[in-house]
Design goal:
Helix 1 (21-39) crosses helix 6 (173-188). The protein is globular and about 45 Å long. With 222 residues, it is α/β, with parallel strands linked by helices. Helix content is 37%, strand content 19%. The chain has helices at 21-39, 59-68, 73-84, 101-108, 134-145, 173-188, 212-217; strands spanning 7-13, 48-54, 87-95, 98-99, 119-126, 149-150, 155-158, 192-193, 196-197. Strand 5, helix 5 (134-145) and strand 6 form a beta-alpha-beta unit.
């Protein structure tokens, strides 16, 4: 019997505090993705490996690499983990209506072809829901430049979202996390290509992924 390569999901958290709501969101997205991957028969019994990279622990190494051009062993290993992952989760706190400088500095160190075709969930945390469009105005263009494939559902968690289950008009944070994790799992298993899925069929449920053009037409705040 031949050994089977595990599916690797890497979450990058740019939170600075401890404990960090950014890290908590990264953990929950990773857990949702792992749960969906484990439930899918297509994995054929493959193990699922999840790793969370805390950028706060690499801040000095990132700064040194930017000025010297030479990564430390730990930073090199983190970059390799991101570029070799089957699926990526990228979570940043909102600073000055955009992603944090630490988050951007890390991804500045990754070659702009290294994430080509890689499925990514983008997510952010902030003190107010007014900054939720940072996902569409800042993070999605960043990963488009890196040639990654961002899944349709992005997740923004404001302070009031934690502990909220939503109501009849809105989805709560847990529901959005599950949906984003499910979309990433589907993409990791090869069900989406270049921002679009196969055409929805009779067996597709409400989680079927729609073409990218329709995503734009139906754009909503997450």
């Amino acid at each position: 019997m031949f050994a089977t390569t595990p599916l690797r999901v890497v979450a990058v958290s740019a939170g600075l505090s401890q404990p960090s709501s950014t890290r908590l969101l990264a953990d929950r997205l990773a857990a949702a993705t792992r749960e969906r991957l484990a439930a899918e028969q297509d994995t054929d019994g493959r193990d699922v490996e999840v790793r969370v990279i805390e950028l706060r622990d690499l801040a000095v190494d990132i700064a040194n690499h930017l000025v010297s051009g030479f990564p430390s062993a730990g930073l090199r290993e983190a970059i390799d983990a991101v570029t070799e992952a089957d699926g990526l989760i990228a979570v940043t706190p909102v600073f000055t209506a955009s992603y944090s400088g630490l988050f951007k500095s890390f991804f500045d160190l990754i070659d702009n072809t290294a994430l080509t075709g890689k499925p990514v969930v983008i997510a952010a945390t902030g003190g107010t829901a007014r900054h939720s469009l940072v996902l569409e105005h800042a993070l999605r263009p960043l990963f488009a430049y890196l040639r990654a494939v961002t899944v349709p559902t992005s997740v923004y968690a404001a302070s009031e979202d934690w502990g909220s289950s939503g109501d009849e008009y809105t989805e709560g944070l847990p529901s959005r996390i599950r949906r984003a994790g499910g979309e990433l799992a589907s993409a990791v298993l090869g069900r989406t290509v270049s921002g679009a899925s196969r055409s929805p069929g009779l067996d597709d449920g409400e989680d079927a992924v729609v073409p990218f053009e329709q995503q734009l037409a139906d754009l909503r705040l997450d």
